[in-house]
Design goal:
Blueprint: H1 7-18, H2 28-31, E1 36-39, H3 43-46, E2 54-57, H4 59-65, H5 74-77, H6 88-115, H7 120-127, H8 131-138
Antiparallel strand pairs: 1-2
Helix pairs in contact: 6-7, 7-8
Length: 186
């Protein structure tokens, strides 16, 4: 791994500055080899070889510290850990909460506009959503029943009494799959 053209000189400066392991206090003699030089913020993230970003560690402390930024380096070196960024699941949960709160506010506004006599399309235009969404939020809107004419109340939905216009009470033809024997009523 290349840490730049002056890496050997920088390592020697750090070893001369620290003299013992910054974590456990081992000397190079007790370590059985020269102290390792560790990047506090991994070099691949920062590209920083400054003396403030480097510390001398014995081999065992360096192995514990060198997780390449996966767990963080703070517990070993007794520094304050940077704030953890939220996971994707947490971000989805937060977005969902915000959307639900926004939707609840829009629903309340839709109800108020509907009570004041606005049509679905007018309400949808004001709130910036589709008229179908407004219809779903407000539920089935039933018109007031008309005065009875001839003793029968007017239908609320669907076709007038007697079936579809022009079909004089006939039921629609049945669908029969191809190749199926025709059904006969006895």
């Amino acid at each position: 791994m290349g840490y730049g053209p002056r890496w050997k000189a920088i390592k020697e400066q750090v070893r001369a500055r620290d003299r013992v392991c910054r974590s456990c206090g081992k000397t190079p003699e007790r370590n059985g080899r020269a102290l390792d030089v560790h990047h506090l913020v991994p070099f691949r993230f920062s590209g920083d070889n400054s003396l403030e970003n480097l510390s001398a560690l014995c081999r065992s402390c360096h192995m514990r510290a060198d997780d390449h930024g996966r767990r963080g380096w703070a517990p070993l070196l007794r520094m304050e850990a940077p704030a953890r960024s939220p996971s994707q699941r947490e971000m989805r949960r937060r977005r969902g909460e915000a959307q639900r709160a926004s939707r609840a506010t829009l629903r309340a506004e839709a109800r108020a506009l509907s009570a004041s006599g606005g049509s679905l399309r007018e309400i949808a235009k004001v709130l910036g959503v589709s008229h179908q969404t407004i219809s779903n939020w407000l539920g089935p809107v039933r018109p007031a029943p008309a005065a009875p004419s001839g003793g029968r109340p007017a239908p609320l939905f669907g076709f007038p009494p007697g079936g579809r216009p022009g079909h004089a009470g006939e039921s629609p033809p049945r669908y029969e799959p191809r190749g199926a024997p025709a059904r006969r009523c006895a």
